[in-house]
Write a structure and sequence with these properties.
This protein has six helices and two strands; from the N terminus they run H-H-H-H-H-H-E-E. It has helices at about 10-25, 25-40, 45-60, 60-75, 80-95, 95-105; strands at about 110-115, 120-125. A hairpin with a 2-residue loop joins strand 1 and strand 2. The longest helix has 14 residues, at about 10-25. The model has no long low-confidence stretch (mean pLDDT about 90).
Length: about 130
């Protein structure tokens, strides 16, 4: 279906990457990701980047997580909170604590919302999250 040009939307790519993750077919997910990167350079969503970082995190591949993050920075896509945490853990696994703190400082959320006495309250996040 994808080879005939039908259904090549970002949602379809997300579903296929999720299926590859569940089946453990990392090399095929990587080749699909490279095809997406080269074909849709300026229109890749934050969700697809997050999917790839979660796929590589699930299979314990910190070097690949950092590669995806580098592509993300190169294209100017701001990572979400989960991606920032995964990239920080990847740098930690590779014994690069200074880069971890730099990423957390630059992209980490400084505020979070909690429910306190039935109301939503904005509080400052712990810098070591």
């Amino acid at each position: 279906m994808l080879s005939k040009g039908q259904g090549t939307t970002m949602g379809t790519y997300d579903s296929v990457l999720l299926a590859f993750d569940e089946l453990g077919r990392i090399d095929e997910a990587g080749s699909l990701w490279n095809m997406i990167l080269h074909t849709h350079t300026r229109s890749i969503s934050k969700r697809l980047f997050s999917r790839m970082t979660s796929l590589y995190d699930h299979h314990d591949m910190p070097d690949k997580i950092i590669e995806v993050f580098a592509d993300m920075e190169e294209l100017g896509v701001r990572p979400d909170e989960d991606t920032v945490r995964r990239v920080g853990r990847a740098f930690e696994k590779l014994n690069q604590a200074e880069k971890k703190s730099l990423v957390l400082e630059r992209y980490g959320c400084k505020w979070k919302y909690i429910h306190f006495k039935g109301e939503r309250v904005k509080v400052r996040r712990d810098p070591n999250f």
